[in-house]
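Q: What would this complex look like in 3D?
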Amino acid sequence: MIFKGRVWKFGDNIDTDAIIPARYLTTSDPKELAAHCMEDADPDFITKMKAGDIILGGENFGCGSSREHAPISIKAAGISCVIAKSFARIFYRNSFNMGLPIFESRELVDAIKEGEEVTVDSIHGTINITGTDNIFKINAIPTFMEELIADGGLMKHIAKKRDNNEKK
Amino acid sequence: MGNTITEKILMAHTNLKNISTGQLINAKVDIALGNDVTAPIAIKEFYKAGGKKVFNKNKIALVLDHFTPNKDINSAQQCKTVREFAQKHKITHFFEGGFVGIEHALLPEQGIVGPGDLVIGADSHTCTYGALGAFATGVGSTDLAAAMLTGELWFKVPPSIKFIIYGKLQKWVSGKDLILNIIGRIGVDGSLYQAMEFTGETISRLPMADRFAMANMAIEAGAKNGIFAPDKITSEYIKKRTKRDYKFYYSDNDAVYSDTIEINATKIEPQVAFPHLPSNVKGVSKAGRVKIDQSLIGSCTNGRIEDLRIAAKIFKSRKASSNVRLIIVPATPEIYRQALKEGLIDTFMKANAIISPPSCGACLGGHLGILAEGERAVATTNRNFVGRMGHVKSEVYLASPAVAAASAVLGRIASPEEL
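A: Here is my prediction, written as structure tokens for the whole assembly.
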């Protein structure tokens, strides 16, 4: 897949309370969650961003609560993918399970400024900053994770496995 | 080469003969947990994937503890979704109303989780059950849906960090102080993707309530799970509770660790995590004069009867400052009843406390104790992120029940030694 978009840069340890504050967890409606995406990190984020934009995080992006509402709000807001230096483990799991593309690249996060545009090529594992020759490598993801993405998330992966077993 | 307790429990839930760090495995789940915030999404995913039957009605726990007693219409709807699912699928371990307690205090207390279990929960503090010598980890709602449907889930076998803690604890120092101290040392991603194994002579003497508080906060160091080797203290705790078979696992002497960290506990004073990260830790003597507006004693970290007894000792002949809202949250109905029986609730009420029903509400800034702009709380909870307990410009200071109680009396962050 190719993702092209403007980046919004956040710092280290962006927690899930900042991504979607608990006061909005009385619903699981993606549209309502999207309206408050990143609200406690940047209250104006949702009005500034455009569909296809990319969120950039530092270390340990998505730490804290296991709420899947966090990747749901990001995806429903129209963010195409998240790139960070590293991800907290439940957020990492949730993103693959529910189909939000996420990538790790320390070098890119250090090299890029907010507002610049990047092209992410998930097949070749590269990220390019538009208007430069700089190519950054994306950390490889485990084969199993690739399968999950290809199948469209964990539940579709399970359904596919079940169908295959039934055919046998 | 030997295995760690974490590796052994994971392996015992597969058909594999050996297992190594980094390996992706599918493992059988003993208990899958969800609550009123995370289960509604799991239920939606369950049905979307064509789910008709849960894998085992006795191995799912659904606990309506976050926005309950129902905060508003939306939260009532979420609870209704979970209730209808629980009724339809005849879920054995469904808790609400007068039976509900904060899930991570409730499940061990009711003997639903035990040593050697593999537990997943759509709640990050599921790691609490590691205190019993179980492998327990927080996952998302889609994971919960998959586990409810198939009884299995994918895991990556984590490397383990071994913590060896030795020395006698100072007066008023608890498991909460030990884990805050550790997070202060290694940072909020110090154990990212890894298991934290707590060992050493201090640990072998540590009561269960303290072990639960430590395992509970393993996630605040980014860990996949926190774990303790089961022993006599574990046996004593579970013998009246666990109804299922259980098994004690131990790490081999030649198990491999990614790191070993030794900590001399004699030097640790009561700890306080300053805003806005659980790793921003100082000794209480170095806290300075921090005035507070609220003191919260409760949560899945520190809402157990032992925690309430410590607080009651401090409030025995003292009242909360008139500038402080003191909120006490017994974590489960059993704890509440025991606290009544022992006269602790009376002590708290004489100290001008608000007694909250068992609920996660205040800890996550949901309801039952929200902070206004500029307000500060000392809380025995586990997170002090920006806006965690209310307004984005409010502040949370994490501490033990002893420090939270002393702070309530003096109206500022304080050690019980100052009383």
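A: To summarize the key features: Chain A is about 35% helix and 20% strand. Strands of chain A lie at 2-9, 54-57, 81-84, 102-104, 117-121, 126-129, 135-137.
Q: Very helpful, thank you.
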